[in-house]
Every structure is written in structure tokens, then in C-alpha cells.
């Protein structure tokens, strides 16, 4: 039996990214320099490049003055999901324009220059497609692209990286209808490999060591043409979302609905009394 | 700059696990056979072994007859978080005895023999500690252990693997108070590496190819003694949980609370009327 095997490494040497920078050129250059020192590391067909959204935002000029952070959060928010006031301030979990559910609409002030806040890429799938097409053309190898951000999750502490943009690769193994080794239906329905790849890449990129891109080798079976669905397809449809609101918010909506019903009832019965 | 690098591979050759099997022996034997064919793959200090909970459950005799699946779900449920009836049946998201929020209390009928359902390990951290201590003793190398299960998440489609048990390794990078390359506070608070390792291992294990264990090499900095906190520490405390109930469930609680208030008010005012 062939042993399934993955290699993951960080792409070093990418400089601090500025608005208007050509990310394709910066990544291709860093990959070329790294390959010169380690020929086995030259990018090859089937490699997946996992890119931190922060450098995509920086290249796309998504910086806003830190003083306009709150305004930017409001602009990038489609819907408030949950809100909680605590000692350190207010945690606001929102749905962003990109369809992501995350704190502060993903607007971040770490790993950016002083006085600057950074919005998410406007359309991370579009950014991923541009990167993928550009790198495939420039390097002559069929790579896949995942753009990541770091997000929290209910029920579990802390954050992990997930795929917020993607191009040139299949993002999931859809196992619905498949069977296990015993011919029994699988419990799992859709294995979301793109999020697992995003998390795996974070292990070599880290948050503090300035490595914004990782290369994953060994998942060539996932790499496709550029027409494949992007990471937006990983967002759960509203009708399937059992956690559309925070518990406190949903409780309040239920409470208010009951009070409104009672009020309407009273209005009706007092109207009947006065007309009788 | 050193290039950070990870290797991840599947441990092949583990037979179908039976109740009472010695997992330490089975894993050590499979690792020895694999190392004979590939000496670089011999387990070494700092390797992390990621083990599918299914084989842990099987070895621990957590099988129940399929006809008792519903009873087992009830027994393993501490609290119903959300419930939804749909065409295929009822989806019940519950908190399990292990503190996990997941569908059907994690009781699974795939990759088990016909007529059998499988409960989660009773205490996955305890199982991980036993595996870790046993493998360290038998192999003479300091490995870390993560036990995984496949779980869904709100807001995003499908499932990914997370750590439900762990021993002998640090599970997170706690970045609270740390600063970025520019000296600015980090947005991220706690990077949950254990879940990212669990997901990374799933990429080589898969769901259908019968590889229940993966080895991750390159994260030796995480490997510790056996006293480190287990995966139970990754469960968010109830007081921090903004999504303690499904939206429909919380809405209903709010609605019922308002109705109960009104009823109490009416009872009080009719009591006053009759006494006046």
C-alpha cells in the first residue's frame, strides 16, 4: 500500500507588502530564491499555495486609518449575529459582505503599520483566481490557491485558520452516498479539505514570524482548472443555519414577539369592549 | 532563515480493531513494519501521532447494537443544543458527556461492522494519556498523541476533524499579550494548533481508505511531558458561549418566558380584583 504523505513548508523572503504590489511577482520571486537553495522545493504541478489574507488585503489597498475602524466594521457588516459587552469592550460577531461569520468583520490591526486597520479582501475568491491564473502563467505549473483568515468558533476556545478564498482546486470530498470499507453509509457527509489545508498551513506560517505563504505538496488530486467553485461555497445556506443568531439575541426576539402578540390581543379586546 | 517544514504521513497496516485490543501494541507494530521499509519514517522524539477516535472506541469496547443507537445517544447527551426536523429525519445537536457539541452525541455507524453503533471513548483525554505513556515506554521516543473526531460547525458546510483527546503536547499557542513584527498587539488570542493538527492529519487519513493513524513530524516544539492539559481544555466555558442554544430554541425560550410573565401578571391582577 502506498503511504499517503504530505509536505508543508513556509515560503520565506516575501517582503512587507505595499498597496499596489504585484503579489504574483512577489510570490514567484520568493519561490525562485527558495528553490535556488533547495531544488526539491521548486513549485510543481499539484502544489497548493496557502496565502494569508493579510498580504492580499495589503496589495489590494484595503488599509483604512485606525480612527475609521468602527466605520469600516459597519460598512463591511451585512448583519449582526451576536453581541456581548465585557470588560475589554464589546465583542460583535457579524456576517461580513464575504458571507463569513466572524468578530469585527475581520478588520484587524495586528501585522499592519501603526495607525492602520486592514479590511478583508473585497472578494477573496476573485483575488484567489487572479493569483492562481497569474502564478500558473508565470511559473508554468498548475498550482491551487487558498486564501486564509483566522476565525473563532462557537463552543471551542481560540481560533483556527479557514479558507476564505480559493481557486484552482476542489475544496471538499463530498462523501454523500459513499460507503465505508464495510459497505456501510458514511456518517460524514462533506469533508471540508480546504479548511483542513488552511489550518495545516497555519502550523508553518504562524502569526508572529512573518511567513505569509505556505506550500502544501501531496494533495495534487485536488488541483483542478480555474472554473471550480470558490470558498464562498463553504458558507452554509441561511435555511440550513441553526445558529443564525446568538442565543441572547434569539431569546430577545422571541420575548419581543410574545409581547407584541399580547399587545395586539389587548388592543383588539379593548376595541371590542369599547364597540360593545 | 530556516524554512519551517512539516511532514505528515499515514500509518498503514493497522488491522481492524477489536474490543480489548492493545492499541499501543498495534500502533507500535505498524510503525515498526513501516520503518523497516522506510527507515526515515521510524518514530522519533517530537513526532505527533494523530489517532482516529473510532479505533480507540473499538479497542475500548464502546460498541452497542445498532438497535440501541437512540438509547445510547440519550445516555451520552448532557444537553440538547438544537434540534431540527427535516426530510431525512431529525438532526439533533447535543452536548456530550465529553463536553463536545456535535450531532447525535458522536455515535456513528460507519466504519463499524453491520448492526453495530459506536460511542465515543468515555474519556478521550484519559485514552490519549494511556496511549502516550504506553508508546513512549514501548518505543523509547517522546511522542505526542491527539485523538480526533469529525464534527460539523455552524455557518460553514460539512465537517472537519478536531482534537477530542490529547496527551503529551501543548495544544495551543496562547498569543494574548504577544505583539507582531511591528510591536502591535495581535488580533488572534489563542491559536488552536491541536485542531489544526487534527485537520492536517485527516488529509492523509481520509474517511474511506482505512488509515486510522497519521504521524506529524516538524512540530516537536509542542511535545511535552504527560502532565499537559488535555483536549477538554479546548471546550469553551459556558459563560463565554454566545451560542449555547440553537436560534429556534433560544427564540422559543424567550417567547415562553414572556408568556409566563404575562400569565403571572394576570393572575396577580385578577387576585387583586377579587380581593378588592
TrEMBL record, chains A, B:
Tree of life domain: Bacteria
InterPro entries: F420-0_g-glutamyl_ligase, F420-0_gamma-glut_ligase-dom
Name the UniProt record assigns to this protein: Coenzyme F420-0:L-glutamate ligase
Chain ranges passing through the membrane: none
Entry's EC annotation: 6.3.2.31
GO molecular function: coenzyme F420-0:L-glutamate ligase activity
One Pfam family named in its UniProt record: F420_ligase
Keywords noted in UniProt: GTP-binding, Ligase, Magnesium, Manganese, Metal-binding, Nucleotide-binding, Potassium
Statement: the UniProt record of this protein carries the keyword Ribosomal protein: no
Domain Coenzyme F420:L-glutamate ligase-like positions: 14-218
Amino acid at each position: 500500500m502506498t503511504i499517503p504523505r504530505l509536505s508543508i513548508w513556509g515560503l520565506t523572503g516575501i517582503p512587507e507588502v505595499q498597496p499596489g504590489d504585484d503579489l504574483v511577482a512577489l510570490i514567484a520571486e520568493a519561490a525562485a530564491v527558495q528553490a535556488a537553495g533547495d531544488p526539491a522545493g521548486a513549485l510543481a504541478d499539484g502544489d497548493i499555495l496557502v496565502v494569508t489574507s493579510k498580504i492580499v488585503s495589503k496589495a489590494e489597498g484595503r488599509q483604512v486609518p485606525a480612527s475609521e475602524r468602527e466605520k469600516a466594521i459597519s460598512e463591511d457588516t451585512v448583519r449582526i449575529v451576536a453581541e456581548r459587552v465585557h470588560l475589554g469592550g464589546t465583542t460583535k460577531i457579524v456576517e461580513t459582505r464575504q458571507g463569513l461569520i466572524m468578530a469585527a468583520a475581520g478588520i484587524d490591526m495586528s501585522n499592519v503599520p501603526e495607525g492602520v486597520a486592514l479590511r478583508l479582501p473585497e472578494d477573496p475568491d476573485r483575488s484567489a483566481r487572479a493569483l492562481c491564473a497569474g502564478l500558473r502563467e508565470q511559473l508554468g505549473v498548475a498550482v491551487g490557491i487558498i486564501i486564509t483568515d483566522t476565525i473563532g468558533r462557537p463552543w471551542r476556545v481560540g481560533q483556527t485558520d479557514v479558507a476564505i478564498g480559493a481557486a484552482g482546486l476542489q475544496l471538499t470530498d463530498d462523501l454523500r452516498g459513499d460507503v465505508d470499507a464495510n459497505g456501510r453509509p458514511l456518517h460524514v457527509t462533506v469533508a471540508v479539505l480546504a479548511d483542513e489545508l488552511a489550518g495545516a498551513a497555519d502550523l508553518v506560517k504562524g502569526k508572529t514570524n512573518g511567513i505569509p505563504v505556505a506550500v502544501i505538496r501531496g494533495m495534487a488530486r485536488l488541483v483542478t482548472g480555474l472554473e471550480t467553485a470558490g470558498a464562498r461555497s463553504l458558507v452554509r445556506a441561511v435555511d440550513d443555519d441553526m445558529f443564525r443568531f446568538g442565543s441572547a439575541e434569539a431569546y430577545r426576539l422571541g420575548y419581543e414577539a410574545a409581547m407584541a402578540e399580547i399587545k395586539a390581543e389587548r388592543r383588539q379586546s379593548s376595541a371590542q369592549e369599547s364597540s360593545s
